[in-house]
Amino acid sequence: MATLLTHSRDYTVTPEGQELAADILAYFRQHPDRHNQSDWFNIVDFTPAEQTDPFCGTTCCVSGAAVLLTKDERFEFLPVGELVQIVRRDYGYPAVARELLGLNYFDAYILFYMTAEWQAIKALKYLERGERPDWAEIFSKDRLNDIKANWDQYEAAEAEYEFQL
Quick check: is 3 in a domain? Predict the structure, then answer.
């Protein structure tokens, strides 16, 4: 299991993080209708005859996809008809996804909470190459300044809910 990173904004993407980013990108490329940065994981209506894989009918954000594709043992995966429902145990999805992808807190915050789908895809491409996302390329200068200004408020709130690995 990866080491939980500190608040440092400088880090190197691990090979496991690169591989998972590539898997998430492949999943979203194959199923673009299932990428929704507004939902961590959501089962939606579908026709069983259209079932082609165990995740059919689900939408998820990057953090949900990280947990879904790795089948992380900190979550329970229950069959619901031909779908899979993920049941949270005592762990927060973003914290686990941050660890799985090897992100620091700051980049996880931006990727999981501040991106639209197209921005998340751009960030995942950086991670897939083993690079830290270049947020200045992904966001406008004004939007990035707003994100940075809100970071301190988020960091304080996140600390209240963070779990220890």
Answer: no
